[in-house]
Amino acid sequence: MDTLIIEAFARALAVGTPLLLACLGAIVNERAGVVNLGVEGLMAVGALAAFAVAASAPDANLWLAVGAAMAAGAGLSALHALATVTLRANQFVSGLALALIGTGAAGLLGKRFEGLPLFNKVPDWSLGGFALSPFTAAALLLAAGLAFWLAATRSGLTLRSVGENPAAADVLGVNVGLVRTLAVLGGGALAGLAGAFLALAYRSSWADNMTAGLGWIAVALVIFVGWRPLRAVAGALFFGLLYYLQFRLQGNSPIPTEVFSAMPFVLVLVVLALAGLRGQAGDAPAALGRPYVRGER
C-alpha cells in the first residue's frame, strides 16, 4: 500500500509540474489584467524549441534548450501582447488564435523531429529513494516566490494594481502598457518552460500534440485556485493525480477507455462550476479582460 501511495504521489508530481508552471504563468498574466487562452500553444512551441536544441547534438546543453523553450514561449506571447495591450484587441479571441497558431506551428515544424532520439535528458534528483525532477523543484520554488512577490514587494503590488485599477495606477505614474506587456511575456516564458519539461524530462521525445490539452486545464486551474500561486500547487497535484488514475484504471476496468480519457476535462467543468457556486470568481482581478485606454472609464 505504501508503495502504491508513493508511486501515485510521484506520478501526480510529474504530471502536475507542467500544469503548475503553466498555471503560474497564466496567474502572472491575469493578475495584470490580461487573459491568455493561448497557454496550450505556448507550451507546444516551448516543447518543440527545447527538443530541437537538445536533439541537435549528443553533447547539446540541456539548459540552453530550457532557455530556448522560455524564449520561444515569450516570443510567441509577444504577439498576444501586441494585439491586446497595444492594439487593444479582444483578449479572448487573441488567446484562442495564439493557441491555434502555437499548436499548428509546432505540429508543422516538428514533423522533422518525430522519431528522432533525445541523446540525453534532464536527470532527476534522488532524494532518499524518491526521484524529483529539477523542473518540479523549480515549479514549487516559483510558486512560493511568486506568492511572496505579489504579496510583499512593491513591484508585485504594482502588477496587482494594474490588474485591479489600471486608471489609478496610471495616475500614480505606472506605465500600465509596459507592466501588462512584461506580464504577458513572463507568463509566456513560464508556459514555454512547462513545454520544456514535457520534451526534456517527462516524455524525452517529440510528438505532435504532446501537450494533450494540459494548457487548457492550466487555464481553468487559474480560476479554480482563485489566482493564488500557493493554491496552484495543490490544484496541480490534484489534477496530476487524476491523470495518474486515468492511466492506472485503463485496461483494468470494464468501463471504456474513452471515459477515462475524458475524465480530466469533465472534472474541469465540475470544479469550475463548484468554484462559481462558492463565489470564487469574485477573486478575479477587477480589470481582467478589459483593455486600458487612458482617459476612459
TrEMBL record:
Main location: membrane
Transmembrane segments annotated in the record for this chain: 12-28, 34-55, 62-83, 89-109, 130-152, 182-202, 214-239, 259-277
Subcellular localization: Cell membrane
GO molecular function, one term: transmembrane transporter activity
Membrane topology label: Multi-pass membrane protein
CDD domains tied to this protein: TM_PBP1_transp_TpRbsC_like (cd06580)
Keyword Transmembrane included in the entry's annotation: yes
Gene Ontology CC, one term: plasma membrane
UniProt xrefs under InterPro entries: ABC_transp_permease
Record keywords, A-Z: Cell membrane, Membrane, Transmembrane, Transmembrane helix
Protein name: ABC transporter permease
Lineage, uppermost ranks: Bacteria, Thermotogati, Deinococcota, Deinococci, Deinococcales
